[in-house]
Amino acid sequence: MRNGAYTLAVLSAVLGLVLLAVAGRGSGVATPLGTVLLIVAMLLGGMGKVIDVLGHVREGAAGPDESN
């Protein structure tokens, strides 16, 4: 894991799955909160990927030009 977004995404996904597994029928808060945490996990994972891509672009732009 290269940046904190992936760590937060994994934590959010685990907590969301735990909430969904523990929630019973008709539970008022656990089911929607678990669903929101899973959506947040996907968004954080996407954000982590964007950060990685931008890091690669920056490293490529800072490197020497090898287009001889």
Strand content: under 5%
H-E string: HH
Distance between the termini: 35 Å
What low-confidence regions span 5 or more consecutive residues with pLDDT below 50? Answer: none
* Helix percent band: over 70%
- Which geometry do the CA atoms define? rod-shaped
Number of strands: 0
Overall pLDDT: 82
Overall SS class: mainly alpha
Number of helices in the DSSP assignment:
2
Biggest beta sheet summary: none
What is the gyration radius calculated from CA atoms?
Answer: 18 Å
List keywords for this structure.
single chain; 68 residues; mainly alpha; 2 helices; rod-shaped
What does this structure look like?
This protein has two helices and no strands. By secondary structure, the chain is mainly alpha-helical. Helix 1 runs antiparallel to helix 2.
Please write out the topology.
Elements (H helix, E strand, L loop, with lengths): L3 H19 L7 H33 L6
Outline of the structure:
This protein is mainly alpha-helical and 68 residues long. The chain contains two helices and no strands.
